[in-house]
Amino acid sequence: MNRFSIWRLLPFAVLIIFTAPLLIVLSTLFGSYSENWFHLYEFVLADYIISSLILVIGVSILVLFLGTVTAWTVTTYNFKGKKVFEWALILPLAIPPYILAYTFTGLFDPFGDANNFIRSVFNLKDSTIIFPNVRNIYGAIVVFAFTLYPYVYLVSRSAFINQSKSMQEAARLLGLNQLEVFYKLALPLIRPAAIGGMMLVIMETLSDFGAVDHFAIQTFTTGIFRTWYGLYDLQTAMQLASLLLLTVGIFYFIERSSRGDGIYTSNNSTFSPNEEVNLTGLKALTAFLVCFIPIFIGFLLPIVELSLWAYEVNLGFFNNKFLENSINTLSLSFLTGLICAALALLINFSIRYKPSILVGRFSALLSIGYAVPGLILAVGMVQLLVYLDNLAFSGFDIVLTGSLLGLVLAYVIKTYALANSSIESGYERISYSLDDSSKLLGSTSWNMLGNIHIPLLKTSILTSVLLVMSDVVKELPATLILRPFNFETLAVSTYIYASEERMIQAAAPAIAIVLIGLIPIVLLSKMIRSSRPIENRE
Amino acid sequence: MNNILEIINLSHAYSKNENSITGINLDIQEGERVSILGPSGCGKSTLLRLIAGLEKPSQGEIKIKGIKASSRENLLPPEKRNVGLVVQDKALFPHLSVYSNICFGIKKNKTKDDIASELLTLFKIENLKSKYPHEISGGEQQRVALARSLATNPDLLMLDEPFSALDKDLKETLYSEISLVFSERKSTILLVTHDQKEAELMTERQIMMEKGSFLE
Predict the structure, then answer these.
(1) Among candidate residues A206, A254, A245, A244, the one with its CA nearest the CA of residue A52
(2) Domain coordinates of chain A in residue numbers?
């Protein structure tokens, strides 16, 4: 057997490419430190740490509350609208935090639409301000919590569904009422799953650039951006990025290990799902509001506000620039989707065709890019491309730097995990006996891949392309940094309009981002609708 | 002696057309140990769930210590009945240690330790105190489930085929040990089983049940 076949080498080769930008960033920790670093260390680093910490703690508490309470409500009670809420509660995932931040300021600023509306209804003076200022860390906490709570909701709902009825009945007979069953038994039982979801939220919060930049909050991401574009000091920016990368790494490993812990389930053979409690009157109204409010703030409010802004320009947004940005966005995201799907297909095939523990472990590392903030990937990628330019085209100065290649590569590293999860689960459904039969009938590896696996994996491949596309469309910081000169995507033009406070013009690209972002949400909601427990009474 | 349980003309149906239980009448006195014997699917477990308040009757009523607990119109919540139920799958809380499982239902913090220590000794599981349910055997899990149910000092303890998943030798050891515990504590017991020998060893009065009704 050839020990160095392409199927064995492929995952290692891809791993080197994927980790190169990250290693470059981390290596700066061991390099020299400039005066800017000491200035940052002395005057602003503590602010970055404190505001990031407040943000993370506030968002964590709020997402845990919103995610678990809504999940408990839809799995335990039966009330009007419950079947819609089951899947609608994930809709806020389609709204990137920076878009909710833009609509929040458009609504709640002193002369925002919400304040204007109340003043006109109640005939109040212009100086009367009803809603509190949202351009601060508390506003950011609300923005992140209401767009990211679905991560906790999804895992909590699934964990609550898997809790055995007999355990909750035992708790009731031991003297606990329904509310006590929730916080004394059901909640501690789903703790590992909820913590896993919360870690994803923390990683997304720490990675964000658009929302914190809009609210002018000093965090690591805004600090990295300012150090690079304000002080023109890439080395210090990378050193700051390293600190953020190490912090995110800690949360990444907590999330992975909480998956290992799994959720506590009963190990008996007589599992039966919980029966829903029918609610009427005030209790039904309370349950309705518990589920409706997060969807209203996290999805309906920005959609309505964006639609009103778009209506104000009376289709004027539908111009050449918007079309060009849309085409740029769609072609880039489609290209990234295809590359990710192809890579995930080849790597999963190589793991299956030439099984090896080492290859399996290294392949798992390929998904790490999903946890890395886009800004850090961009910083590392720029340095990598500069290095490659110097190595290969020393006479031509810059060829790769500032090209679409770096941008697509950063997208691929960031979104490979999404494609991989879809194709990996597709492969789990293909029996190994098909591979054995194919080998016995004389198929080569490429034959097996092309004639057996790809036709069977068609849906998984399509899903992976769509998942990647919807994520790439939302990506802001990496695009902002790595895009070629004068090249704009929908996310970039939304950011530029919003940073110039031209909210009405930002509406159209923002709506387009949300619509494309809805694709995986629709796929997920389909899965949720088919994952309701089945009553199996004797 | 006082009546702990009084069931009057009780019926229950999971669907409109078919009764799972029809016209059940039963009295259990304080300290009495009663078993209901019958084949699988005859309605034994449903009867226990009705007494526990986990199901609502379609007709008749259940009184616990003279207080109306269940009828077609009213249902006292399970947590307010002060009854215990041990089922075949034990329903131990997997994230809690043996000690915490036993203490789970005890409201008064001051007495927690004393009650738990007494039960750990009584069921001979002191050495398992800090272990988790997945770390102990099926027989040990059953002892923990029984200890947990007794910790709240229920007026009536119901056992739903508690030993059916255990092997023959272990069952026989547990019968004598647990019967002794019940006698010492003067517990009021309602056991359902399909095993005649288990019923005779564990209880003083046996009632036969078939197709949702007691046999005369």
Answers:
(1) A206
(2) 6-23+31-261+273-311+318-529
